[in-house]
UniProtKB/TrEMBL annotation:
Flagellar basal-body/hook protein C-terminal domain ranges (all copies): 575-613
Cellular component terms (Gene Ontology): bacterial-type flagellum hook; extracellular region
Molecular function per GO: structural molecule activity
Domain Flagellar hook-associated protein FlgK helical: 107-324
Sorted UniProt keywords: Bacterial flagellum, Secreted
Family per record: Belongs to the flagella basal body rod proteins family.
Keyword Secreted set for record: yes
Listed InterPro entries: Flg_bb/hook_C_dom, FlgK, FlgK_helical
Protein name per Swiss-Prot or TrEMBL: Flagellar hook-associated protein 1
Length: 616
């Protein structure tokens, strides 16, 4: 009689708990990370080990629930985690490359100001004396420099924002690692195979999935389900072991970003293979290259225009100066600044920029040279060694700005000048004598426009097939034959064509108000560059297309990675997910088993009552 009661009682208890597991599966069918639970039964016996969910019924017969199993495939789980990392990496890279492309295209494109500048140069070459045309050229040159500045600022801002996102991802990884260490500690204190252990295992896997979307992980589980995590593989630095978690830091590097694991000073580098940080690192490589190419283009444009412009003369007959300035002071706020102060800088023409520091003491600003050779204190604006500093916003005590020279696209600017200072005319003119019998033409090459030849004008005369170059004092500077270059005092000349006996050519400097356009044409020739792909427009297009191609490539790979992730998720869902039809079948089976055990208890009670009645 007692065996029947024990059998029925154990069955009711065990199958009640099993039905609760089914109900839990159904309730969490759509819960991300929930793994289907199943009940593991074993016969009850004297002296046997108690089940994980109930006390031993103490009888010699019956059934008990000894474990709650999770229907999980660890290989599929690892595959999904790795594909999630690939998706996160390509998503981050594609997203940021799109932002980089946007910063260089549309209203931010360099094509428009470049074309406008050369269009203004064409007008200037056609009418070099028109003041309005000259003013337009200066406006277009200033607009091009401004676009270079804004593009550089946009890319600098993107780099700062990208680094901020990378640091946030590093902080998130630290938080997840600590949470995983806490779960490990709770798993160690929880009975193996219990429902609580299954719930903790679900939480562990959810944390690992989130961590895997940030960085590649190598995960190993012990018999209690505690996770040991290394980055990015079994030979990498240890991130989580038991209830201990190491911290990570994300740092900028020449290769994009660097992930370091462990306390500062004793940390180890962890290669970035997948995950959002790897994607951000890839995007930063592309961003750094775009900034370098933009700086190179700005430097080349400024250098080419300056070189040609200095070879001409302006409306006053003066040598042309540089057209673009290529350096300017830049103020960088300290990261710990707490106020809203902003500063603008202006450097007097001809002044030399020195590294300086601007600091606020709560009442006044102090501007000082870093070499200690000068300082000034007071309210803004302040001026030191030709550098003027103005401010806006509200500073806080201790706010600091570092001031240093910048170059490249961020520094290019139009030199302060008026329209009459545009050097449209050639510096040197050559004229054939009216009595020449030949048809030869003369070409002139100046070695260094900044070191003009002395004692002009010059004369080139043909006598007996020998060409002689003399200065205004009759001094012979050089000689040669037609077709070859004859070196003079910092310049060289060449005659090509038919040269008659006694033919002569005068070489003189251009003067004021000449109306010449030779140098304007030389500036316009910069539009075509010196070879295929060397023109400013072609290089600007190459800059954008390189980023656009990279963005399209990452997007295409992202679509493929997402499909692989979806397939891995589907395979895991088939193995570990909840199927409502299966759960319904299990529920029906368990209900029947429960009813059968309840009927055993009822039968035992009826028999017991019958025995009692018969004994009266």
């Amino acid at each position: 009689m007692s065996d029947m009661l024990f059998i029925g009682q154990s069955g009711v208890r065990a199958y009640t708990r099993a039905m609760e597991l089914v109900a839990d599966n159904v309730a969490n069918a759509s819960t991300p990370g929930h793994v289907r639970r199943t009940a593991q039964f074993s016969p009850a016996g004297n002296g046997g080990k108690s089940g994980v969910t109930e006390l031993d019924v103490g009888g010699s017969s019956g059934v008990r629930l000894t474990a709650v199993n999770r229907a999980v495939d660890l290989l599929q789980l690892d595959t999904l985690r790795r594909t999630e990392g690939d998706v996160a990496a390509l998503d981050a890279s594609s997203r940021w490359l799109t932002s980089i492309e946007a910063a260089l295209t549309g209203p931010n494109a360099l094509d428009t100001p470049l074309n406008d500048l050369f269009g203004a140069l064409s007008d200037l070459a056609n009418d070099p004396t028109d003041l309005a045309v000259r003013e337009t050229f200066l406006a277009k040159a200033d607009a091009l420099a401004d676009q270079f500045n804004r593009s550089a600022d946009d890319l600098t801002r993107l780099d700062s924002d990208l680094l901020s996102e990378a640091r946030i991802e590093g902080t998130t990884l630290n938080d997840l690692s600590q949470a995983l260490a806490d779960v490990n500690g709770r798993l160690r204190r929880t009975a193996e195979g219990s429902a609580a252990a299954a719930s903790l295992a679900d939480e562990r896997d959810r944390l690992l999935a989130q961590m895997g979307s940030i960085s590649t992980l190598d995960v190993s589980l012990d018999h209690l389900g505690q996770a040991e995590v290394r980055i990015p593989d079994a030979g990498g630095p240890l991130l989580v072991s038991g209830s201990n978690a190491q911290s990570v830091r994300v740092l900028p590097s020449a290769t994009g970003l660097e992930l370091r694991v462990g306390p500062s000073g004793a940390d180890e580098p962890a290669p970035l293979l997948s995950g959002s940080i790897a994607g951000l690192s890839d995007a930063r490589v592309q961003l750094t290259e775009a900034r370098t190419r933009l700086d190179t283009l700005a430097t080349q444009v400024a250098s080419d225009f300056n070189r040609v412009h200095t070879e001409g003369v302006d409306s006053n007959g003066d040598d042309g100066g540089i057209l673009f300035q290529t350096t300017r002071p830049l103020a960088t706020p300290a990261g710990a600044n707490g106020g809203s102060a902003r500063v603008t800088l202006a450097l007097e023409e001809g002044a030399t920029a020195h590294p300086m520091t601007l600091i606020f003491n709560g009442a006044d600003w102090t501007l000082s040279r870093d070499d200690g050779l000068g300082s000034v204190t007071g309210t803004l604006p302040l001026t030191l060694d030709g550098l003027s500093v103005e401010g806006a916003g509200t500073p806080r005590n201790g706010d600091l700005f570092r001031i240093a020279d910048s170059s490249g696209a961020a520094a290019i600017s139009l030199r302060p000048m008026d329209a009459g200072q545009i050097a449209t005319a050639q510096r040197w003119l050559s004229e054939a004598d009216a009595t020449n019998s030949g048809s030869a033409g003369l070409s002139l090459r100046v070695d260094d426009a900044l070191l003009p030849p002395s004692s002009p004008p010059y004369t080139l005369t043909n006598s007996g097939g020998t060409l002689t170059l003399t200065d205004s004092l009759g001094t012979v500077l050089g000689s040669g034959v037609a077709g070859g270059w004859i070196e003079g005092d910092g310049f060289a000349v060449q005659l090509t064509g038919s040269v008659g006996e006694g033919d002569s050519f005068a070489i003189r400097r251009n003067g004021a108000n000449s109306g010449g356009n030779g140098n304007a044409l030389a500036l316009l020739a910069l539009r075509d560059g010196s070879g295929t792909g060397t023109s400013p427009g072609a290089q600007a297009d190459a800059l954008v297309s390189r980023v656009a191609v990279a963005a399209a490539s990452r997007q295409q790979r992202f679509e493929i990675a997402r499909e692989n992730r979806n397939q891995a998720a589907e395979a895991l869902s088939l193995a570990s997910g909840v199927d409502l039809n299966t759960e319904a079948t299990d529920m029906l089976r368990l209900q029947q088993a429960y009813n059968a055990n309840a009927r055993i208890i009822q039968a035992a009670r009826e028999i017991f009552e019958t025995l009692l009645q018969s004994s009266r």
